[in-house]
Amino acid sequence: MNIPHSKPTVGNEEARGLQEVLTFGRIATGEEVECFEQEIASYLGLRGGVATASGTAALHLSLLALGVKEGDEVIVPSFTCSALLNAVQYCRATPVVVDIDAETMNISFSATHKALSKRTAAIIIPHMFGHPVENMADFLSLGPPVIEDCAQALGATCQGTITGTIGAIAMFSFYATKVITTGHGGMVVSQNEDLLEYIRDMREYDKKAEYRVRYNYCMTDLQGRMGRIQLEKLPSFLEARAKRAQWYEKHLSGLEGVVLPTQQGIYYRYVVKITKGRLHKVLEQLHQNGIEAQRPIFSPLHRYLGLDGFDITEKVFSEALSLPLYPQLTAEEVEYTARCLSRAMQDING
What is the mean pLDDT of the segment spanning 301-310? Predict the structure, then answer.
């Protein structure tokens, strides 16, 4: 049996929609993208959105819209994707990397508070693996504008409030294996029309009355139509992910040395912690059985920058294991994965 770690969920509706756009002949940025922007904003209850070529582009433009520039500092957690480092450094600002919360694997408030300085221009807060940061009010109280990184959290709610509507600005990713997909793509959303107008101007470089450095960060109408179709399926996607998480819990509950997630949002990833045993050995055995389980991030950001002192991030990185999870995953595949994980734990721990 071969079980991928992640898999896009697309079908005949997407194929027909893309064919319609191709037949119409307008495939660059146009009406489909505008409709997708409006539909995402309406889903979130926000004023508007600006679709982009990628989640990284959305994050870069969010930072620029907030005025982040050379000499500024932007606080980011270590346990996340390197796209955050890239976006900050595109602005020639300095990323200030902080530790995480051991249980939620989200950014630590106390570490963020300690990292504040007069140069702090923004705080990027990813809702990791679909689990929202629950103390958003504390982060907002710190002063610098908050960018919500909702790349993994479309549809999640935090104390009754949907993610992406809490900070000054928020971004989403629609990469192939995200909650909904347009292949590549992203979006910035906000209640602040001035921020949105700035981003609309900056994502497209041509036919402007005055010159300044702008970007080629547009989404295509092919992606826009696909996104609209995927958004209609979002409730069923979230329900399917939650059901598969329940299957995992049923099969893995009580397994010694494995801590299951205590999720409060959506199940973008199903991340367990291997507290007894060696994670690399568990991964090796799962791979031998055709299960493409992974570490949930490739590398902590502090390692890229050669920084020390991130004890919690290091511990979580040594234990966290992301099991396959997507709407097409079958009950048989979940049971097989759980059985192979149980056997790996027994073999490793004797």
Answer: 97
Dig out the tokens for 154 from the structure: 């479309």
The rounded Cα 326 to chain-centroid distance in angstroms is 15
Helices in the chain by DSSP H: which ranges?
12-24, 31-44, 55-65, 83-90, 109-115, 136-140, 193-202, 221-252, 279-288, 301-304, 311-319, 331-349
| pLDDT tens figures, 135-144 | 999 999 999 9
Rounded to whole angstroms, how far apart are CA atoms 106 and 132?
Answer: 8
Torsion of CA 138, 141, 145, 150, to 10 degrees: 20
The pLDDT of residue 26 is 87
Consecutive H or E run containing 123: strand 120-126
pLDDT in tens, 112-133: 999 999 999 999 999 999 999 9
Confidence of residue 350 (pLDDT cuts 50, 70, 90): low
| C-alpha count within 13 angstroms, C-beta hemisphere, residue 273 | 16
HSE, side-chain direction, 13 A CA sphere, residue 225: 19
Domains and CATH numbers, the chain: 12-230 (3.40.640.10), 235-349 (3.90.1150.10)
**Is it the case that residue 263 has pLDDT exceeding 80?**
no
Tokens 């906000």 sit on residue: 190
Q: What angle do CA 59, 63, 65 make, to 5 degrees?
A: 115
Say whether pLDDT at 314 is over 80. yes
pLDDT at residue 1 in the model: 85
Q: What is the pLDDT of residue 349?
A: 73
User: CB of 252 within 8 A of CB of 337?
Assistant: no
DSSP conformation letters of 147-210: EEE-TT-TT-EETTEETTSSSSEEEEE-BTTSSS--BS-EEEEES-HHHHHHHHHHT--SS-SS
The single residue listed with the structure tokens 């602040």 is 192
